[in-house]
Amino acid sequence: MTSNIVNQNHFQKLEEAYHSAKINRIPYKDMTLEVEEGKAQLSYPVSSDFFHKMEALHGSVYFKMLDDAAFFAVNSLVQDVFVLTTSFSIDLLRPVNEGLLKAESWVTFESRNLWVAESHLLDERGRKIAIGKGRFTKSKISL
C-alpha cells in the first residue's frame, strides 16, 4: 500500500510540473495530463490558433503531444530526476481540424540508463492521427 501512495505522489508531482511549465500555461493551457506507472495520456481540444495555411492542426502540436506523453510515461518510472528526450520520431497519418485529441503513451523498453516509449495520437473517434517513438535517458535535474 505504501508503494502505491508513493507512486501516486510521484505521478501527481509530475502532473503539477507539467502544468506549471510556462509553455503549458499559456499556448497549451487546455492540455491535460494523466500519469500512471509506465503510461501517460494527454488530452487537448483542437484550437484553430495552431492551424497552418491549409486550416488543419500544425504538426508541431502533434510532436509536442506525442513527445510529452512519452516523456511522462518514462518519468513515471524514474523518481529521482527528470529524463531527457534523446531522439523522437513521428509519423503524421492524417490531418485534424476539430475535436478532442488524446496522446496515449507507454514504455516499451527500459534498462539502467535508457528507456523507449511509444505514443499514439488519436482523434475523438479513436482514429490514429499520428504515431511516435522516442528514446530517453536520465538528466541531472532533480525532481
Please describe what this structure looks like.
The protein has 143 residues and is α+β, with helices and mostly antiparallel strands. The protein has one domain: Hotdog Thioesterase (Thiol Ester Dehydrase, Chain A, Roll), CATH 3.10.129.10. The protein is 28% helix and 41% strand. The chain contains three helices and six strands. It has helices spanning 2-20, 22-25, 59-75; strands spanning 32-36, 39-45, 81-92, 100-110, 115-122, 128-142. A six-stranded antiparallel β-sheet has the order 1-2-4-5-6-3. A hairpin with a 5-residue loop joins strand 5 (115-122) and strand 6. The longest helix has 19 residues, at 2-20. The radius of gyration is 15 Å and the shape is globular. The two termini are 23 Å apart.
Topology, number of strands: 6
| Spatial arrangement of strands, main beta sheet | 1-2-4-5-6-3
Helicity range of the residues?
25-40%
What's the oligomerization state?
Answer: single chain
The SSE order reads HHEEHEEEE
CATH fold title:
Thiol Ester Dehydrase, Chain A
Which descriptor suits the 3D outline?
globular
Number of helices: 3
In CATH terms, the superfamily is: Hotdog Thioesterase
Radius of gyration: 15 Å
Tell me the span between the first and last alpha carbons: 23 Å
Q: If you average the pLDDT, what whole number results?
A: 92
Q: Please report the first level of CATH classification, the CATH class.
A: Alpha Beta
Please give the CATH architecture: Roll
Structural class: alpha+beta
